[in-house]
Amino acid sequence: MSNKIKHLEFIQNVITRMGQNSFLIKGWCITLLIGLLALHAHKPHLNLFWSMLILLPTFWELDGFFLMTERRYRALYDRVRILDEVAIDFSMKINVKDCSWHDAVFSQTLKLFYLPLIIIVVLLFMVKT
């Protein structure tokens, strides 16, 4: 049973790391967006607007990658959880069919985070011009 527990711990560590990466991505996105909005408020410029519109989808896609990877490792965890002790081989190979990049990027949680930010940026640009 100790092999199974150790293998599950390895997988759980990857899942935790992906969650932390996603949290950091959101933090960096907000930090950079606020910085660009502050610059835009001080001196409105079209380049700042385009920078914000490039920044948000880029972070959204990267966050989607981390969520996709996390979901794939959660599926691996579920498969390992039901394996017999003798079948444990400590493989960390994930199945790409468990979660697609598209499903992760357009998940409810990411849409509810990034879409309002994009809408705010567009509305602020429309008000400033």
Give a brief description.
Keywords: Membrane, Transmembrane, Transmembrane helix. The chain has 4 helices and no strands. It is mainly alpha-helical.
What is the total tally of β strands? 0
Largest sheet: none
Beta-strand content estimate:
under 5%
- Quaternary arrangement of the chains shown? single chain
> Radius of gyration, Cα only, in angstroms?
20 Å
- Mean pLDDT over the full residue set: 92
Elements, N to C (H/E): HHHH
The structural domain count equals 1
Q: CA-to-CA gap between the ends?
A: 65 Å
What low-confidence regions span 5 or more consecutive residues with pLDDT below 50? Answer: none
Which structural category fits the helices and strands?
mainly alpha
- The shape is elongated
Helical coverage, percent range: over 70%
Number of helices: 4
Keywords: Membrane, Transmembrane, Transmembrane helix
Transmembrane segments: 21-42, 48-69, 110-127
Overview of this structure, please?
Keywords: Membrane, Transmembrane, Transmembrane helix. The chain crosses the membrane at residues 21-42, 48-69, 110-127. This protein is mainly α and 129 residues long. It has one domain. The chain has helices spanning 2-42, 46-81, 101-105, 108-128. Helix 1 packs antiparallel against helix 2 (46-81). The model has no long low-confidence stretch (mean pLDDT 92).
